[in-house]
Amino acid sequence: MLGRMSIKNFQSHKKTSLVFDKGINVIIGQSLSGKTAILRALYWLIYNRPSGMAFNSHFSDNEATEVSVFFSEGYNISHTKSDKSEQYVLSNKKWEKVNKEVPDDVTKIINFGELNIQRQLDKPFMITATPGEISKTINRITKLE
User: Fold this and answer.
1) CA-to-CA distance for 32 and 27, rounded, in angstroms?
2) Which residues are CB-contacts of 144 (< 8 A; sequence separation ≥ 6)?
3) What is the pLDDT of residue 120?
4) CB 4 within 8 A of CB 69
5) Which of 43, 55, 80, 131 sits between 20 and 30 A of 105, alpha carbons compared?
6) Which CA distances in Å does 74 have to 25, 83, 95, 107?
7) Would you say residue 51 has pLDDT above 70?
C-alpha cells in the first residue's frame, strides 16, 4: 500500500512530500496549486510517460527530477531523470538508461492500474455504470476476463 510520496523538481513542485492514509485519499486545493502535477508525477513513476524533460521544473537549475514512493510493506521506488541520465531504483536495485520501459520488478511492486486513481472529471466509479460495465470491471479486477 502506498505510504508516502516525494516529488522533486517536477512541474510546479520544487520539493513536496505527501503521506497517504489507508483507504481512499483525496487531494484538494485551489486552482493552479499543483494537484494535477501530483497525479502526473505518480503516472511518470508508474508508466515513465511523458518522455523527454518537459515536466522538469523551471526553477530547478538543471537539477534532476525525482519522484519516489514508499510502500507500507517496506519497498521504496524512485525514478530520477536529468539531461544526462535516467534511472529507476527499487530498494537497492538500480536500472540505468531505462528509455521508455519501466523495469518489470518495479511494475510488479507498484501494482497500480487504471482502477486505482480517480481523476476530477472521471464519472463516479461504477455508480453510473451499466450492469455489463460493472461485470467487465469486476472481471478485470479478479482477472477472470
Assistant:
1) 13
2) 138
3) 63
4) yes
5) 55
6) 20, 30, 19, 16
7) yes
Give the C-alpha separation, 83 to 64, whole Å: 8
Contacts of 126 (CB under 8 A, 6+ apart): 133, 134, 137
The label of the residue with cell 539531461 reads 83
Please compute the mean of the pLDDT values over residues 24-47 and round it to a whole number: 87
Q: What are phi and psi of 10, to 5 degrees?
A: -115, 115
Task: Scan for cell 517496506, then name that residue.
Answer: 74
What pLDDT score does 136 carry? Answer: 84
For the 2-112 domain, the top CATH level (class) is alpha beta
Asked whether residue 125 carries a pLDDT value surpassing 70, the answer given is no
Residue type, 38: I
Cell of 35: 494537484
Residue extents of the structural domains in the chain: 2-112, 113-145
82-122 pLDDT, tens digit per residue, is 888 889 999 889 998 777 788 888 888 888 766 666 666 66
- Cell readout for 23 is 483507504
Q: Is the dihedral of CA 70, 89, 115, 33 positive or negative?
A: positive
